[in-house]
C-alpha cells in the first residue's frame, strides 16, 4: 500500500480546511473551497485510491515525458503532485500506459483496448473550449516569438535527480565504516531525510499562509480604495448640489435686482464667489 | 458697509472651512506617515514599505467604473464653477 504524507484518515480529517483544499489541489483535484468538509475528504480519499490503483512506472513515464525532474525513487504521491502541474496537450512521445494513467488522473473515462487516438481526442475535449482557444492563441504567439528568439537547443535524454543518500547501500556503508558506523550512517541519513521533508513541508505551509495573508490584504486594499472612491463621489455630488443651488441663487438674485428686465440676465452680472 | 448676503456668507464660510479641514487632514496624514517611515523600529518600517508595495500593486482597472463616474462628476463640477464665473 502506498504511503501518503497525510494517508491515515485521522490525520487527513485533522487537517484545517485550507490545508485540505491545498492538499487536494496539489493532487490535481479542482476543488471548490466552499464545498463541505466531508465532500473534500471524500474527493481526496477517492484520489488516493486512484493513486494506489495507478501503475507507478506509468506515472513515471508521464513525468519523464513532461521532463519534470524527479528522483527515480519518487513516491506515487510526489509523482501525482508533479502530474497535476502538467498542462501539455500534445501527447507525442508519451507511452500508452502513461497516456492511460494521465487520462485516469485527469478524470477521463478509459476503456480497455481503446485506441490511443480516441483517448488523446477525449483528453483534448475535456480541456474545454476556452482553454483550447487560449492554447491555440498561445501556440501562434509562441511560433511568432520563436522566429525572433533563438530556438532552445535540442532536448537531451531525460535524467533523474540524484537520490538523497547518494545511492550508497547499507552494504557499501558497512564496508567503508564498519557495522555500527554503517548502520548509524544509514539511520542518520534516513532521519535527515525525514527532517528535511518535514522542514520543506513546514516551509511550504508557511509560504501558503503568507500568500493567503497577502491576497487577503489585497482584498482589504481594494475594499479600502473602493470606500475612499465612494467618499470622493459623495463629496463631489454634494459639491455639485451646492453649486447648482448657488447657481440658482445667483440667477434669482440677478433677476430680482433687474425687475424691469424679463429676459435672461446680462452676462457679467453675476456676484458669485468661486466656491472653494 | 455693504448689505450682508446670508447665502454669500454661507458659501464663503463653507469654502474656508472645507479647505481648512482638508488641508489639516492632509498635513496630519503626511506628518504621521513620514513619522512612521522615519522610525528606527524595523517592524514598523517594514510594514510601512509593505503597505506601499501593496498600494503600488493595486490594479486601477478594477476601479474603472468608479473612476469614470468620478471623472464625469468632476467635469460637471468644473462646468458649474465656470458658469459661476460667466
Describe this protein's structure:
- The complex is a heterodimer of chains A (276) and B (86).
- Chain A has 276 residues and is mainly α.
- Helices cover 65% and strands 0% of the residues of chain A.
- The N and C termini of chain A lie far apart (78 Å).
- Chain B has 86 residues and is an all-alpha fold.
- Chain B has helices at residues 6-38, 42-56, 64-85.
- In chain B, helix 1 crosses helix 2 (42-56).
- The model of chain B has no long low-confidence stretch (mean pLDDT 84).
- The chains are: A mainly alpha (276), B mainly alpha (86).
- Chain A binds chain B through residues 217-218, 221-222, 225-226, 229-230, 232-233, 236-237, 239-240, 242-244, 246-247, 249-250, 267-268, 270-276, and chain B through 5, 7-8, 11-12, 14-15, 18-19, 54-55, 57-58, 62-63, 66-67, 69-70, 73-74, 76-77, 80-81, 83-86.
Tell me briefly what this model is:
The complex is a heterodimer of chains A (276) and B (86). Chain A is mostly helical and 276 residues long.
Order of helices and strands of chain B: HHH
Instruction: State the helicity of chain B in percent bands.
Output: over 70%
Mean pLDDT of chain B: 84
Largest interface: A-B, 30 and 29 residues
Report how far apart the termini of chain B are. Answer: 26 Å
Low-confidence stretches of chain A: 262-276
Shape of chain B: flat
In angstroms, what is the radius of gyration of chain B? Answer: 20 Å
- Range of strand content of chain A: under 5%
How would you sum up the major sheet of chain A?
A: none
Notable characteristics:
heterodimer, A: 276 residues, elongated, disordered C terminus, B: 86 residues, mainly alpha, 3 helices
Describe how the helices and strands are arranged.
The complex is a heterodimer of chains A (276) and B (86).
Chain A: H1 9-14, H2 17-26, H3 37-53, H4 56-65, H5 76-83, H6 96-105, H7 116-126, H8 129-148, H9 170-177, H10 179-257
Helix pairs in contact in A: 2-3, 4-5, 4-6, 6-7, 9-10
Chain B: H1 6-38, H2 42-56, H3 64-85
Helix pairs in contact in B: 1-2
Amino acid at each position: 500500500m502506498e504511503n501518503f504524507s497525510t494517508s491515515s484518515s485521522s490525520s487527513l480529517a485533522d487537517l484545517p480546511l485550507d490545508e485540505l483544499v491545498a492538499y487536494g489541489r496539489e493532487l490535481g483535484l479542482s476543488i471548490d473551497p466552499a464545498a463541505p468538509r466531508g465532500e473534500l475528504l471524500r474527493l481526496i480519499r477517492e484520489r488516493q485510491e486512484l493513486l494506489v490503483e495507478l501503475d507507478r512506472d506509468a506515472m513515471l513515464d508521464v513525468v519523464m515525458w513532461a521532463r519534470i525532474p524527479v528522483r527515480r525513487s519518487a513516491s506515487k504521491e510526489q509523482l501525482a503532485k508533479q502530474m497535476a502541474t502538467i498542462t501539455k496537450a500534445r501527447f507525442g512521445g508519451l507511452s500508452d500506459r502513461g497516456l492511460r494513467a494521465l487520462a485516469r488522473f485527469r478524470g477521463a473515462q478509459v476503456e480497455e483496448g481503446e485506441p490511443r487516438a480516441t483517448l488523446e481526442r477525449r483528453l483534448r475535449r475535456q480541456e474545454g473550449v476556452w482553454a483550447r482557444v487560449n492554447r491555440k492563441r498561445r501556440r501562434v504567439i509562441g511560433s511568432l516569438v520563436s522566429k525572433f528568439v533563438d530556438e532552445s537547443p535540442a532536448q537531451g535524454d531525460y535524467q533523474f535527480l540524484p537520490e538523497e543518500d547518494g545511492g550508497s547501500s547499507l552494504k557499501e556503508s558497512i564496508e567503508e565504516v564498519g557495522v555500527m558506523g554503517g548502520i548509524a550512517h544509514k539511520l542518520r541519513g534516513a532521519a535527515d531525510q525525514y527532517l528535511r521533508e518535514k522542514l520543506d513541508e513546514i516551509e511550504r505551509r508557511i509560504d501558503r499562509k503568507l500568500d493567503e495573508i497577502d491576497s487577503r490584504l489585497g482584498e482589504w486594499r481594494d475594499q479600502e480604495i473602493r470606500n475612499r472612491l465612494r467618499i470622493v463621489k459623495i463629496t463631489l455630488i454634494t459639491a455639485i448640489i451646492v453649486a447648482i443651488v448657488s447657481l440658482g441663487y445667483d440667477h434669482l438674485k440677478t433677476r430680482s435686482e433687474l425687475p424691469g428686465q424679463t429676459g435672461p440676465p446680462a452676462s457679467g452680472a453675476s456676484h458669485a464667489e468661486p466656491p472653494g | 458697509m455693504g448689505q450682508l448676503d446670508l447665502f454669500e456668507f454661507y458659501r464663503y464660510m463653507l469654502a474656508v472651512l472645507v479647505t481648512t479641514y482638508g488641508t489639516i487632514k492632509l498635513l496630519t496624514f503626511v506628518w504621521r506617515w513620514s513619522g512612521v517611515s522615519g522610525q528606527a523600529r524595523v517592524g514598523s518600517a517594514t510594514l510601512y514599505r509593505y503597505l506601499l508595495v501593496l498600494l503600488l500593486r493595486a490594479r486601477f482597472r478594477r476601479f474603472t467604473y468608479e473612476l469614470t463616474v468620478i471623472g464625469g462628476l468632476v467635469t460637471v463640477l468644473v462646468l458649474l464653477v465656470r458658469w459661476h464665473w460667466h
